[in-house]
Amino acid sequence: MFILNNTDSTPLYQQLFLQIQEKILSGKLPAHTKLPSIRTLAEELSTSRNTIEGAFQELYAEGYLYSKSRSGYFVSDIELEPATATATTVSCPKQDLHPKLAERYRFDFHPARLDPDVFPATHWRRCLIDTVRTEAGSFSEYSEPQGEWGLRCNIQFYLEHSRGVHCSPDQIIISSGLQQNLEIVAQLIRDNHSSIAVENPGYHLPQDVFRNLGFRINPIDIGSSGLNPDTLKSSESTVVYITPSHQMPLGYVMPVADRLKFISWADTGEKFIIEDDYDSELRYIGRPISSLQGLNPQGNIIYLGSFSKVFSPALRLCYMVLPARLADTYKKKFRNYLSPVPLLTQRAMISFMEQGHWEQHLRRVRIFYKKKHDLMIRAIEQCFGNKAKVIGQGAGLHIVLELADRIKDESEFISRAKQRECRLLSFSDFYADGKKEHNKLLIGFGGIPIEEIPSGIDLLSCLLE
């Protein structure tokens, strides 16, 4: 009756939603038809109950279905126009502004992809619907400039108890992503700072943002402990961007001795540390690494966090914690700015967190992605043996594979992988100084279906022969 395609980038629950919607609109599912139970349909389609329930809930919310207590879901009596009953959905040519995102891969090893099946669609939908129903009157208003007070209070509580970050809600800024966070920071510090030190290799977005805003970029090589604080001291930079809890992309954890050196460096003069804690929730071995900010809450540390890595990048919901004096500067410079995050999204997230769904979701995603992580490590051991070494395992949504033999041409290898429906990012792109990498592969496991991981790793090993 219904077919779900695991290789399609469209979430499974949405595939089912669209198929049921089409059958209702075309008259193939007449009014008052009883749908199979969630359990039965999950077994028939070999998928999770959450997938089925997510599709049913969305159909119910949009009026295609109604429910009876202890009886299940039924097709609503929808008055269809004659043309609607005989025609399916009108399709229009779709233009994708980002063609690379429109491409389909069987093995998508992009390090920032999430698994659609782990998104808490049912709980999130209920929070959205409840927010619209109970707070409709507030949607004629603008959000608070720094973001909703209730959301900042919930974030403050979460950060203090899970990341050791100490701050007040007044220091928290709600933003639409890392890019906006960095643009705000750049405007706050540009009067007294002209260069920024970055990890090399490191995440390329901060390099682009600060370079485009007129800052000089000072790449500092990464060692096995992350960015070397002694090398930073000898540089001209008075601002540094680092990922100390899980270095991007190599995955190193900065030891506490080096963290204390960074704090001492920032306390000497007008210097700032930008701490990006982008995926701290996803740690699979040992206890979570405490934040750098928590070691010196009164210091010159700008803490960046996000809902994108463990919840959804599509919501464009991020935050940052400013040092107290920068928070005062922010209020002066940005007092007439409006929050870029929709009020509905913020209010729904308040409800989501206050009902305990956020902590529940975090526990679930850790278990879910740990299974993928462990399976990928086992697959690498089986397929590569002593031909490669894993770097950065135990956290996040990616690992780095250091090969025993060099790759002659990285771009040519990535092109060959693409021809086999395998997506890889260039490791060389993470170097701010233009260095070319010949023996490292960046392999993400978040978005690839778990059953495809062994085949994907086997394909990579074959391509390298």
Structure description:
The protein has 16 helices and 15 strands. The chain is an alpha/beta fold. The protein has three domains: 8-89, Winged helix-like DNA-binding domain superfamily/Winged helix DNA-binding domain (Arc Repressor Mutant, subunit A); 127-355, Aspartate Aminotransferase, domain 2, CATH 3.40.640.10; 361-463, Aspartate Aminotransferase, domain 1 (Alpha-Beta Complex), CATH 3.90.1150.10. The protein has an eight-stranded mixed beta sheet, sandwiched between helices. The chain has a three-stranded antiparallel beta sheet with strand order 12-13-15, with helices on one face. A two-stranded antiparallel sheet has the order 1-2. The chain is globular, with a radius of gyration of 24 Å.
- CATH architectural type of the largest domain: 3-Layer(aba) Sandwich
Number of E-type strands: 15
Structural class: alpha/beta
- How far the N terminus sits from the C terminus, by CA atoms, comes to 43 Å
Bin the helical content. Answer: 25-40%
Q: Strand fraction band?
A: 5-15%
Radius of gyration: 24 Å
Q: Which CATH C-level class of the largest domain is it? A: Alpha Beta
Figure out the total of helices.
Answer: 16
- Which residues form runs of ≥5 with pLDDT under 50? 81-99
Largest sheet: 8 strands, mixed
Task: Please give the oligomerization state of what you see.
Answer: single chain
Mean pLDDT: 88
